[in-house]
Each structure stands twice: as C-alpha cells, then as structure tokens.
Amino acid sequence: MPLVFVASVAEGKDVLLRVNNPPGDAIGYNWVKGETVVPRHQIVLYAVDAQVTTPGPAHSGRETVYPNGSLLFQNITLNDTGYYTIQIIKRNVQVDQGTGQLRVFHERSNTGLPVGSIVGIAVGVLVGLALAAALGCLLLRTRTGRASGWRDLRELYCPASTPRDHGPACSSTSPDSLPSPTTAVPIYQELRHPDTNIYCQINHKAEMAS
Q1: DSSP letter at 34?
Q2: pLDDT by 10s per residue, the chain, length 210
Q3: What is the CATH number of the domain that holds 96?
Q4: 8 Å CB contact between 184 and 205
Q5: 93-131 b/e with 16+ CB inside 10 Å = b?
Q6: CA dihedral in degrees (181, 183, 185, 186; nearest 10)?
Q7: 43, 9, 42, 49: which is closest to 25 by C-alpha?
C-alpha cells in the first residue's frame, strides 16, 4: 500500500494528494476516482520515462500529476469528495495500489457564521426596523387624531361668537375663574332665558366675575 491518506479541504481551495514513499523503479502512475479501478473513472495516466500525461474520462482539467506520482487538485468542489486510488506500475510489471479519502467542506465566513445565518440576521434586522417605523407612524397618527378630536369637541360646544358678544367665544375654565356666590342671580336669570350660546355665555360671565 504506497498511499493511505485522509485529506480535508475547504471548497474552492487547492489540495495535493501526495504519494508516500514512491518506489524508485516506477515507470507509470495511474489515478482513478473510487476505491476500485474502473476505466471510465480514470483521471490521468503518467509515463515517468517519457514524462507524458494522458488525461482519462474522469479528468476535469483541474488535475495535475507530478513525476513523483502526487496529484494536485485545483479549485476543489464538493463533488470531488470521495475515494481516490493510485496504481504504481514498476519495471518488473508489478503494480502497487493504494487508496485515500478526500473530504471537501463549506468554508465559513470570518465571523464564524455560515453565509445563510448572516443573511438571516440581516433580514431580521431589516424586518425589525420596518416594524419600529410602522409603530412610530401609528403612535404619531394616534396623537394627531386625539388633538384633532379635542379641537372638534371645543368647536361643537363653543360656537363662533355673534356681533352682540363682547368677549371671546369660548375659553378654558380654571378653578380660579369659577363664579363667586355674588354672581348666582345673574347666572340664574340667564338660565331662565336659554340661548343657543348658553354654554359660552355662562363661561364668559364667570370669567368677567373673576
């Protein structure tokens, strides 16, 4: 067994399948994908004396064999994962054979997170920002609606002043502007003769009394 290896490499990298202790009387190297030698799975055949490389049916154009029998894979892919077998042909027509395993894995980002996880986090952040913006707009519209409702309520109960009025049509009433006991009679007289502006007139007389 001239070759027994287990190699692990990230996708997109290069890897060298090295032959350990190759014999000095080797005249050829035959690389095959798989644990058994099948002609259609032949990658490359190398003649040592002539230094001639003959690609096989399984050659992808990314493999290079060296005079010592080692095989270089460039730009490795996940499909390259599997077992590889080498045959070493000697001058006495004997053949030594060995098998090794190549493992290819996804390369992680510098942050240690898979690319899919990073995309998921970014989408989550964008969704969170969108929800926050929608909540802000909802709160703003709620406050605006309350202020508009308060103005409509004041207009409903405080109609515009007429020419016979002598003061503001309506104003807010505070505890300091409440009528004193001395103004009870005028207010009572006004109540006996109701008017459409009775609410504002009461409020206006209360302000004058204060």
Answers
A1: S
A2: 555 577 889 999 999 998 888 888 999 999 999 999 999 999 999 999 999 999 999 999 999 999 999 999 999 999 999 999 999 999 998 999 999 999 999 877 555 555 555 656 656 666 667 777 777 777 777 666 555 555 554 555 455 554 454 544 444 454 454 455 444 445 545 555 555 555 555 555 555 555
A3: 2.60.40.10
A4: no
A5: eeebebbbebebeeeeeeeeeeeeeeeeeeeeeeeeeee
A6: -170
A7: 49
For the CA atoms of 37, 39, 41, 42, the dihedral, rounded to the nearest 10 degrees, stands at 90
Give CA–CA dist 203/193, Å, rounded.
16
Q: Where are the beta strands (DSSP E) in the chain?
A: 6-10, 15-17, 26-33, 42-47, 52-55, 63-65, 71-73, 82-90, 95-105
Domain co-membership, 173 together with 101: no
Tokens of 42: 């032949």
Structural domain containing residue 66:
6-105
Whole-prediction pTM value? 0.52
Of 73, 105, 137, which residue is a domain's last? 105
User: What's the structural domain count of the chain?
Assistant: 2
Handedness of CA 203, 207, 208, 209 (dihedral sign): positive
Cα 21 from Cα 30, distance rounded (Å): 16
Rounded-to-integer distance, Cα 24 and Cα 70, Å: 14
